[in-house]
Amino acid sequence: MIPYGKQYIDDDDIAAVVEVLKSDWLTCGPAVSRFEKALADYCGAKHAIAVANGTAALHVAMLAAGIKAGDRVLTSANTFLASANCAEYVGATADFADIDPRTYNVTAETLGAAWKSDVRAIVPVDFAGQPCDMPTIAALARERGALIIEDASHAIGSQVQHKGKWYKTGGHAWADLTTFSFHPVKTMTTGEGGAVITNDDKLAQRCRMFRSHGMIRDASHFVGLSAPANSRFTEYGPWYYEMHELGYNYRLTDIQCALGHSQLRKLDALIERRAEIARKYNVAFSDLSGVQLPSIDAGNMSAWHLYALQIDFSAIGKSRTTFVEELKKQGIGCQVHYIPVYLQEYYRKRYGYMLGKCAVAEKCYPGSLSIPLFPSMTDDDVSRVVRAVLATV
After folding, report:
1. Cα dihedral sign for 176, 181, 187, 189?
2. Is the Cβ–Cβ distance between 104 and 78 less than 8 Å?
3. How far apart are CA 225 and CA 282, in angstroms?
4. Is residue 244 within 8 Å of residue 209, measured between CB atoms?
5. Measured between alpha carbons, how far is 284 from 13 in angstroms, rounded to an integer?
6. What share of the chain is helix, strand, coil (3-state, %, to 5)?
7. 332 beta partners
């Protein structure tokens, strides 16, 4: 069986993890700082904060940004649950904007159409690895006083060109915070894991605080104070910490960060292999009737997390379930990305969201199908997938 996604692990990755296992640190040690610095440098950003997973990254970003009850957060209808749930975690209202029918991303226009006066943050999602049009989205959000948390869980290593210059996701000025996921099916992995990227010193400090129980341990924070706050104790020894807000244990281990650091060194090569497979698919499927191929905007470089087809199943005379079952019999796995989030039971009951809210997302969902795309696929694997799809359409 060829799954729709799979991690790529080589001997260098294994050696990096073994080295940590033989060291004095398994967690909260030097491998974390090394990975964070390498990640920030790769993106071209000031700060990277490693956390337990991509959902934790979104939650920490919401906390750091001060989003709270009474605020509304707009995100894409076409995304995984976490892009919306992170708003609910902090007591805010998750709301949804429709998508562009070619890129499946939100746009400034769709966000503007969904805007309400209480929107305090937006979470654009870089679907399948293609960046949203962040410059125009940022112009809208900043004009209206909203923070921007770019959900780039699919898009580490992607790039956008603006006024003749290339910017990596996480390293541009159009998001206040950017989040990544390092789940095994993503472009690079730490096993489980995620990160928050920002150029804002204060937001970075708050992210670090919230990922570790809300504690402040930095001795410089206490310089000039005569005694610990609200305390009869008078020493600020190296053991001393203060909890300033309610935080979480969202730390990432040295073991995982060692794997992430090793993966990061070959990230560009992993993305190129994904792009090569996507090009082979584009050639093979270009003449298929009733099938829409992924569309990449000019000036964008996708990280190609997914290869998501749009198939008119009624035109080919079979249901999507039948199509998936026929591919499975040929040893080909696939997945659907995504059910419009606002149609999930939780959101329907809580806010009364219903069919018709985001017409394009609802139109795209019935035809969506992601076929296998991951770097360890051989050319023979790619040919198998092509033959199976052509035989099934």
Report:
1. positive
2. yes
3. 64
4. yes
5. 33
6. 40, 15, 40
7. 2
196: phi then psi, degrees, rounded to nearest 5: -115, 130
Domains present along the chain, CATH in parentheses: 11-265 (3.40.640.10), 267-392 (3.90.1150.10)
186 is catalytic: yes
Of the residues 186, 318, 329, 357, which is catalytic? Answer: 186
Give the span between the Cα atoms of 236 and 241, in whole angstroms. Answer: 8
Cα–Cα distance between 50 and 215 in angstroms, integer?
A: 16
49, 207 Cβ separation under 8 angstroms:
yes
- Encoding tokens for residue 342? 């606002």
Q: Which residue has the tokens 């640190």?
A: 25
Nearest by Cα to 106 from 79, 81, 80: 79
Cβ atoms of 132 and 125 within 8 Å: the answer is yes
DSSP 96-108: EE---TTT----H
Helices (DSSP H) in 44-101: which residue ranges? 54-65, 82-89
Contact 381, 120 (CB under 8 A): no
* Amino acid sitting at position 362: E
Per the listing, tokens 């789940």 go with: 183
Cis status, amide bond into 338, omega within 30 of 0 = yes
Helix axis angle, 54-65 relative to 82-89, nearest 10°? 40
Each of the 393 residues of the chain gets a pLDDT tens digit; together they read 999 999 999 999 999 999 999 999 999 999 999 999 999 999 999 999 999 999 999 999 999 999 999 999 999 999 999 999 999 999 999 999 999 999 999 999 999 999 999 999 999 999 999 999 999 999 999 999 999 999 999 999 999 999 999 999 999 999 999 999 999 999 999 999 999 999 999 999 999 999 999 998 876 665 555 555 555 565 677 788 889 899 999 999 999 999 999 999 999 999 999 999 999 999 999 999 999 999 999 889 999 999 999 999 999 999 999 999 999 999 999 999 999 999 999 999 999 999 999 999 999 999 999 999 999 999 999 999 999 999 999
